[in-house]
Design brief:
This is DUF3108 domain-containing protein. By secondary structure, this protein is mainly β. The protein has one domain. The chain has helices at about 5-25, 95-100, 175-180; strands at about 50-60, 65-80, 80-95, 105-110, 115-125, 130-140, 145-150, 155-165, 190-195, 200-215, 220-235, 240-250, 255-260, 265-275. The chain has a 14-stranded antiparallel β-sheet. It is globular. The N and C termini lie far apart (about 50 Å).
Length: about 290
């Protein structure tokens, strides 16, 4: 029988995936064509002052219980003299969820006004574990250079240098690009791969389009949504669905809801409030 400590550790690891999965949800306003080397794109959807809040729920003992909150904001800023956007995603578990795992995570990303990735940071406090992942981008001779690092609570640090002639993104900078692409000609089963910097390596993530669906949020608002699945491959190349997610079928391409499976059960993140978005919420079903 699994000891209580081992159960708690599995819960901590599962809780640590929540913010990552939510961040990935936030990038799902994409077209289903491969990303090319053109890292600049005209901003269409992002706007200074946008703010989205979410409720986080877990399925424990046959009932859904609220486990925490998350907030995503976008603000104008300047980075090393370059006019930019700063995106920030904060998530935390509540007191009842802290019994099983404690999560206090912050993701920060800066992109230029042309939506080129410039900087990414993830500070993750999960149980007794605290790590800081960073990615710093530069562009020289049509090459993307990414300097990544992970720093542990005890001061240990791991660095990773990566160069590519293809664009590289992190969990939030891909959102900036994706939200400004108008999806057309979707076909069920269409896929794309995203190269993403994690602080320790570059990962490829598979996204699959799965049609449309109407989704009702906790405030009883129904949105017409585009449905995608996030898929990973294990060491044997076997595919596994991690998450099903729903984004608004309008020009805002806002994440409305996600559902996913963790080691300790099912979970979902549901939209609570939106303010400061650029366009009317035309995906609301009357």
């Amino acid at each position: 029988m699994m000891t209580r400590r081992k159960k708690q550790m599995k819960n901590v690891e599962g809780g640590g995936k929540i913010l990552t999965l939510l961040a990935i949800l936030l990038l799902l306003c994409i077209n289903l064509n491969p990303i090319n080397a053109q890292c600049k794109i005209k901003n269409i959807a992002m706007v200074d002052g946008e703010e989205i809040t979410y409720d986080l729920y877990f399925h424990w003992s046959f009932v859904w219980k609220k486990a925490g909150d998350a907030i995503f904001t976008t603000k104008s800023t300047t980075y090393k003299g370059t006019p930019s956007y700063k995106m920030e995603l904060l998530a935390s578990s509540n007191k009842s969820a802290d019994v099983f795992f404690k999560m206090r995570d912050t993701l920060t990303c800066i992109v230029s006004n042309d939506l080129e990735p410039l900087y990414f940071r993830k500070g993750a406090e999960e149980g007794k574990r605290f790590t800081v992942d960073e990615a710093k981008y530069s562009y020289t001779n049509n090459q993307v250079i990414v300097e990544q690092s992970r720093t542990w609570k005890d001061g240990r640090r791991q660095d990773h240098h990566f160069e590519s002639d293809q664009c590289v993104y992190d969990m939030l900078s891909i959102l900036a690009k994706a939200r400004s692409i108008n999806p057309e000609n979707y076909k069920s089963g269409d896929r794309i791969n995203f190269p993403m910097a994690t602080g320790r390596r570059i990962d490829d993530i598979i996204l699959e389009f799965r049609g449309t669906e109407n989704i009702k949020t906790e405030n009883r608002t129904t949105f017409r949504c585009i449905v995608f699945a996030l898929i990973e491959k294990d060491k044997k190349k076997k595919e596994k669905d991690l998450i099903t997610f729903y984004i608004s079928d309008d020009n805002n391409h806002l994440p409305i809801k996600l559902k996913f499976n963790l080691n300790f059960g099912s979970a979902q993140v549901t939209l609570r409030t939106i303010k400061g978005q650029k366009y009317p919420l035309q995906s609301i079903v009357k």
